[in-house]
Amino acid sequence: MLEVTLYSELGTDCPQERQLIAQAARAAFGLFEFPFDAEVDVTLVDDEGIRAANREIRQIDCATDVLSFPMLEFAEGSYRGTLEQDRDPETGRLFLGDVLISLERARAQAEEFGHSAERECAYLTVHSILHLLGYDHVDEGPQKAVMRAREEEALSSIGLKREG
Fold first, then answer.
1. What's the domain count of the chain?
2. Mean pLDDT computed over 66-84
C-alpha cells in the first residue's frame, strides 16, 4: 500500500485533486508487487512555486509541470536498497520521495493537449511516481517507450485511458 500525503501551497485544500492524486499514485505503485508499504509527499504549487524549486534545486530558471525527488534507489520498479535500513522504524514504510505538481501548468497543458485537467493531473502524478521508482525517459527510445506504457497501464487501471 502507498500512503499519499498531499500539501497545497495554493491557498486552498484542493479536495478534488487530493482524491485523484492519491488514486493515481496508488495505481502507479500498484503496478508492482513490492514486499513493503511506502509513502510519498505531493505538494501542489503554481507556476512560480515550481519555477522557484526548479531554480533552487536544479539551477533551471523556468516553470515545469512536475518535479520528482527520489529518496531511495530503484531501477525500473526494482528496489535496490536495504529494507532494514530504509524502512521508517515508526511506520514500517519506505519513504519514496517528494513530488511537486504545478496545478496551474497541469490545467494549461490539459487544454493544450485537448483532454481533461483531471487526466493531466493524474498523468503527472503517475509520471512522477514512476520516476521515484526508477523509471526515466532521458532518451527518445526504449526507456521512454517503457515508461509511457507503464503510465498508460496505471491510468487505464483507474479509468483514465488516453482520450482521442
1. 1
2. 91
